[in-house]
């Protein structure tokens, strides 16, 4: 209980690890986060009364560990609205087709008032003395104990848990002595969740699509958006549509993508300009604290949960955690939670 524990990364995994250890009575815990904010790939933006998810959004009934932590923190879930017809664009020259969604679809859920509520609840329970923002780890040196060098200062630890994506870890942190070569090679070929995504949302004055008998669900083979969903808040007082933009548009600027999205929305739903309030987006590949832009292509979820991430490192005192390391649901919020609990069990055995 007196071990000095340093957790690298203030996303969902890192915060759950810190919260659980604090609840169990561990007295020296530090969460070291490179960014100016917590949450990692959970990123909720408040626009008026709308809670816009530009990062992780949905969960399902089989996400048992994530649901459990939501219950523990008294966080409300609500069903993703899917009532009404959907729209589909096969080719750009043809009109948009309208069709009924299949009945008895698997229900997906959202977190009421934004996924970031999960992050806020965890961080509030930890307190400011545990969390250290704007501290990018650049070197980890091990000699029975750890010396963690950041862009601004140093931390000492008996145990280190890293929750940042494996590919980013081995490309941005120098280890002394070096990590095993086979682990480095696998990490460099491990897909990072969200790195290929461009998420967007358009906020409106009213949910006009519902008046048309539409669900807000739309698909397009030609883009610029490929998927679209109703994104109104739990109280139905903030109205939005949210979706994914094809990755080929990442080279455009925000204004160009916004114009293309509004044109496509007009094609699908008719004139929307009178209802339009705000356009928001997040191009995750441009986040330097998430991705390594080395030009390589990695298949989604490749090497997520690889056994090498669970091997003993530096006398078992360095633990690699985070969503990509989870054997189950790797690359999702559920994987982030499960990897956190795996890390906690390992700490008990050190």
TrEMBL record:
Q: Which GO terms describe its molecular function?
A: oxidoreductase activity
Q: Which domain of life is it from?
A: Bacteria
Pfam families in the cross-refs: Amino_oxidase, NAD_binding_8
Q: What InterPro entries does this protein map onto? A: Amino_oxidase, FAD/NAD-bd_sf, Flavin_MAO
Segment forming the signal sequence:
none
For this protein, the parts annotated as crossing the membrane are: none
List each copy of the Amine oxidase domain by range: 109-343
**Which protein family is it in?**
Belongs to the flavin monoamine oxidase family.
What this protein is called in its record is Monoamine oxidase
Q: Which organism is the protein's source? A: Tenacibaculum skagerrakense
**Taxonomic lineage:** Bacteria, Pseudomonadati, Bacteroidota, Flavobacteriia, Flavobacteriales
